[in-house]
Every structure is written in structure tokens, then in C-alpha cells.
């Protein structure tokens, strides 16, 4: 999810204690898993096994004779299509694949083998496990999506393909109160077309259909216990956009390469811009320079908070802010054939509660009750109108707008360059670990 210059990116967002507490709701599953595979424990596993356990224990010898020998429940070993198998079953004991680990350079080279830094890394094992699980879910869902996405599908269908996949793979459908805070969507699935760069997702009743000629930015987040993986790619069916996509992919990888402990974000922006703007693209007979969109940035990610306090510009700047050990960054770059500048346009779909708001006395009862729904289900995680719809909320717009006017909830409108232009995006989440930089969302695809 893109951060905007300067306001969004520079807000000092804090994690609320209640959000933290809610996120730690996963209980260990009962021991005595019949298949003995010691699968990752969470609430849903407990539910799945409850029936089987009681049949095995309570039903004991008496009933056993009457029944046909029950087949042993086996853990699936492969993902289905569409993806519906929890990744915690595919990777028992939390043994999720690592991201791409990159050693630090120069004066930070010592860290890879340093005893103290390795110790610090080991103390973060829950953090790493949650992050790797979320990243694996992102990879599996996006790779399925890339396989099936076709012109003629509605944006709503595509968004639901992704969101249903993410929720199933976390094992949390997010319908029971507080469930979406344990794991699920880290922010709404953005499907921004052509001149729109970010923060578009269909609201209820949207009939937009993906066209053969479209350039679609797919930007979605997966979180496990508030650890958000923010990663995005661009889909195009026509080869005329190849150079645009290539420019942005290389610019993002340049940013990832430059990132590291003590790296200055302004310099990283310069390298990103240089890479991006070394490309041009010919579309329908006209040649365009590819420009970095100068008022969009990458950003730090905090627990349950998608936009942290640091920004990573994608143009050269004097920003001397340094990356530090322990930071989590979303490195995202946007290229455009237009002005290289976005402004708010079209209907809002994305919202998030501000984490730094003081208590406000709300007079509107619909705003009060909606805020309670937001607190219980999303905390400070971004959500969209469709997520309120699926919780059964109705006629909430007045209340929602009131929360926005009172500064409690922030609206994130779609961000678009000039009409007729094309924009592309690639994004990865990276962990600035004590010993190495881990590109947690890296896959074979990008
Ligand atoms: Co982002």
C-alpha cells in the first residue's frame, strides 16, 4: 500500500495496546493431534480436531465395532486450486520458507557471523515465523491469481479471488469478532487500473471489467499477528507495456539492493529514480519516458500499522533518514508515462483508523457503533467498504464519513496520474534483521 508525500508517510503512527493484545489471541491447540504431525496450532485447528477427538475419546470401544474403520485424517501436502489449504498445514512446526537473505556490505559485513547479532536474530523467532508465514501466503495467493486472472473478469471477482485465498490460507475468515486481527488481510486488495496508481478497490455494486488493454496494479497485504507483508505487482496482457513493467521491476530491485543498515533513504531514492528513468516505452506509436511518481513513497511497517514513520522516496532527495537494525520496510516504486505525480480521484474505498487519536466524543450514534465494529475487527489495520459489508454492516456511510471528519478514521482515496497515462508498481517487504537483510516476500515471479 503506497504512502503519499509528505503527510501520510511522515505521520508518527503508534500501535495501540488493545490492537496488540487482540492480535495475540492464538491459543495453542490441544496436544494429541491424531495424525501426530504436530501441525501449527491455532484456534481453527482446535475446532477442526474437536469433533475427531471427541469421537475417538468419548466414543471409545463400544461404538468402535459398529463403525467402519475411519480413515486417518491426513494433512494435505499440496496446495489446492483455488488455494484453500492453510499454510500452517503445509509447513508443520512453523517451518515456513525463508525469504531471500542478503548479506550486508562494507562496514556491516561483520554482522552475518557476529555472535551477538546472531543471538539478537534468534530472540526474534516468533516475529520471523509470523512474517514468513504471511509471506508464503502472499506468494501462494498471488501465483494462483496470476494464473487465472483474465480480461473479462470483474474487479470484484479478482479481489475476492485474492481475499478468499488469503483468508483461507491463514485459517481465519475474519467473520467472528476479532478474528481478522489474528491473521488475514493486512490491507484491502488494491486493483488500480492504467492512470490510477494505487488505493483503488471495488465498492459494492462496482461492475468494472478488466480489459485486454489494461495495466493493473495488484497490491495486497497479508498479516499474521499484526506482522504485515506488503507486496505488489503489475498485470498486463499486451506486450507494448513490457518496458514500463521492466523499468519499475528493476527500480524496485535497485531500491532493495541499496537498502541496509545506515543507508540513507534520500540516496536510495536517487538510485531508484536513475534506474526507473533510464527506460522509455513505446505505446501505440508514441514514445514516453518512464517517470518515477514523485509523490509516492515506500515506508516502514509497524505491528498492525501499515505506514510507519520513515518514508523511502522514489526520486532523489536530501532526506538523511537512515535505515536501522530492526526496521521493516515496504520498498515500492511506481513508474508512469504521465506527469509522474498523482492526485486524489474517484470514490474512496480504503480507510484506516488513526492510531494516534485521542478520545473524541461522538454525537452521531451510527458513528459510535461503526467505530466499535472497526475497533473489534480491524483495529488500525486498513479496511475497505466491502469488508464492512461482509460483516453485515449496512447504511454505514454517514457514520463512516463522520469518523473521517472527526479525524478518527483516515480515508485513502485512489491516487491517479493524468487520464490516458499508464502506471506500474512493484513492491516487496524487507526485514532489516541484525545479521542479514531478508526480502521476505521474494518469489520466483518477482
Ligand atoms: Co506499501
TrEMBL record:
Record note on cofactor: Binds 2 divalent metal cations per subunit. Has a high-affinity and a low affinity metal-binding site. The true nature of the physiological cofactor is under debate. The enzyme is active with cobalt, zinc, manganese or divalent iron ions. Most likely, methionine aminopeptidases function as mononuclear Fe(2+)-metalloproteases under physiological conditions, and the catalytically relevant metal-binding site has been assigned to the histidine-containing high-affinity site.
Binding site for a divalent metal cation 2: 230, 299, 332, 427
Comp. bias (Acidic residues): 32-50
Residue spans crossing the bilayer: none
Signal peptide (from-to): none
Keywords: Aminopeptidase, Cytoplasm, Hydrolase, Metal-binding, Protease
Enzyme Commission number(s) of this protein: 3.4.11.18
UniProt region (Disordered), positions on chain: 1-102
Subcellular location: Cytoplasm
Enzyme class: hydrolase
SUPFAM superfamilies in the record: Creatinase/aminopeptidase, Winged helix' DNA-binding domain
Cofactor entry: Fe(2+); Mn(2+); Co(2+); Zn(2+)
Residues noted as binding substrate in the record, renumbered to the chain: 199, 307
Keyword Kinase set for record: no
HAMAP family on file: MetAP_2_euk
The protein's name: Methionine aminopeptidase 2
Source organism per UniProt: Hirsutella rhossiliensis
